[in-house]
Structure formats: structure tokens, C-alpha cells
Amino acid sequence: MSSQRPEPLRAVARRNRDRILEVARDALTASADASLNSIAKKAGVGPGTLYRHFPTRESLVLAVYRHDVEHLAGLAAVLLAAYPPLEALRVWLDRLAHYGRVRRGLADALRGATGDAPTGDPLTGALATLLEACERAGVIRPGITPGDVLLLTGFLWRTAPARAGRLLDIVLDGLHAGAPAEPPPARRSDGETP
Q: How far is CA 179 from the centre of its chain?
């Protein structure tokens, strides 16, 4: 008799859901018309399992979109820990542009964010975090909003990657113009500068 216990049902269901999302992301990137049955087959699950997790095509597409947005939003903190703020912003915007090229619908979803974007949007929140870090470091001009940057970089999603990098550098040079020569002085907890 085996000493191994069967995997709990919830863990199996979660693993199946994650696998479906992974396969759906790739399949829908290759073809927006990928069938749900082909996605289920590639994920190694039956159609019933797919439909139990995602009752409609729209629910699957939305789940893929949400998963990717959460990943991109979470990437901001990781990049800020690994790079100086302006470089972290550049890498994040490059990843956002890549995602926008691969997921054509992202540009439409973010179009509403080019004004005063809602603060609850994870991508807008991540971009705000990056911009605040850049402003604190004194590497961009003060007062840049996530909506400003999304409007300025929206073209990157329609540009070939080789050219997009050069154009992103031009945008970042523009954000840097007018930045303080030195980072602003740190504030003490009593509000005074040291």
C-alpha cells in the first residue's frame, strides 16, 4: 500500500485552472478564434473541466486578461527593487508595450486610462508607483501622471519592437527634461529637511 495520499481536490482544481489559463493565453495570442475545446485538449483537461472554471468564452478571456494585468502590476515593485527608478520605469513600460502588441485588446482597455485614470486600475496603480519613485529620485519632472504616460506611450503597442525601444527612449528623455538636477532632500518625520 502506498504511503502517498491523493492530492486534495482543491489543489487539483487550482492546478487545472492555472493550466487552462496558461494554455489559453498562448492559444489566444496565436489566434483570437482559438476554440475552447482545443484549449481544453492542450491543457490536458476535458471540456467539462474548462467550462466548470470558465462557463463562457468571455469569462476565460477576462480571466487571462486579469491574470496578465496582475502580473504586470506586481512587476513594478520587483523592478523597483532591482533597478534605479528610471530604469525600472523603462523596463516596465517596455513590458507593457510588449503585452499591448501581443494582446491587441489592451490598448482599447487602457484607452479610458489616458485621462485621469481610475486609481483602482492595477496597471495605473503600478505606473503611479513607478512615477512616484522616479519623482522622489529627481529623475523625471514633477507632476507626471499615469494618464500622461499612457497617452504618450500608447503608440508603442502598434510599433515594431526594434523601433519601439528607440521611441521609448525619446519619451523617457522627455519625462527627464525639467527634472531637478539633484533628488529632492529627504524629509524627516517632523516635516523638516535634514
A: 26
> CB of 80 within 8 A of CB of 74?
no
Q: How far apart are CA 77 and CA 96, in angstroms?
A: 15
Which helix (DSSP H) or strand (DSSP E) does residue 85 occupy? Answer: helix 85-102
Global pTM? 0.71
Fold of 65-185: Tetracycline Repressor; domain 2 (1.10.357)
- Asked: is 1-55 a CATH 1.10.10 domain? The reply is yes
Q: What is the CA radius of gyration of the chain?
A: 21
| Distance between CA atoms of residues 102 and 54, nearest Å | 22
Buried (b) or exposed (e) across 104-122, using 16+ Cβ within 10 A?
eebbeebeebbeebeeebe
> In this predicted model, what pLDDT tens digit does every residue of 50-79 receive, in sequence order?
999 999 888 888 888 888 889 999 999 999
As given in the structure block, the three cell numbers for residue 3 are 504511503
